[in-house]
Amino acid sequence: MPDSNLETNLGKTIYKRVLLKLSGKALMGSKGYGIDHETLYDIARQVKRVTQMGVQVAMVVGGGNIFRGEEAAAEGMDRATADYSGMLATLINSLALQDALEHEGVTTRTLSAITVQAVAEPYIRRRAIRHLEKGRVVVFAAGTGNPYMTTDTAAALRAIEIGVDVLLMGKHRVDGIYDVDPLRHPNAKKFEKITHMEAINRRLEVMDSTALSLCMENSLPIIVFDVLGERAIERVVAGEAGGTLVYTEARA
Hints:
The chain is of the alpha/beta class and 252 residues long. It has helices at residues 4-9, 37-52, 69-74, 79-103, 125-133, 151-162, 196-201, 209-217, 232-237; strands at residues 17-22, 56-61, 108-112, 121-122, 137-141, 166-171, 177-178, 190-191, 193-195, 222-226, 244-247.
């Protein structure tokens, strides 16, 4: 049944440009590996409706549903090689997102930090911004193009480079930031909002510390939410999300 309050708020977003960071696990849906196409197309339909609200959308997706570089390195694989393999996994997910979006009629461009010219454009900041200005969704693939850097760091870096209003962190079945892991501790306390510095000092699992520090230094707000909730992406853009806001206090 349609949510009348959400329908009323469509078109009333305060954001002009956002970057949506998805974990690779989010694309698995209820599957244990790979891509769940029902989940993929649900995300694509939501992103389409967000663009219809007049919001410019960029995306970064992880690769953990296919390959995790840290885990492979822990098992003996060369770390740089493992991380490059993980970048290729993000490229697979990015192309899947592009295909789903274009099936929904959304013009999409995948920009890769490593050269794969047969399937994606190279990442060029000004080109990415121009695509967004033309109403295209931009998917940033292959992280930063460097080993030892996570896709969280890539999301923070790209968000700052292209000047987004907010970084949306779509989590897999976790609806915000808690003081302890809510999947293991039923009495975990959820934060409605928290500063970047508090999150760093408490060592909360928002994103890796490099990414969080980048956001703090550039006063980039983050909203952490469960991307698999009903119309979750639309809700967060319409200001109705029940997630957690991470912000930097104004300096005197």
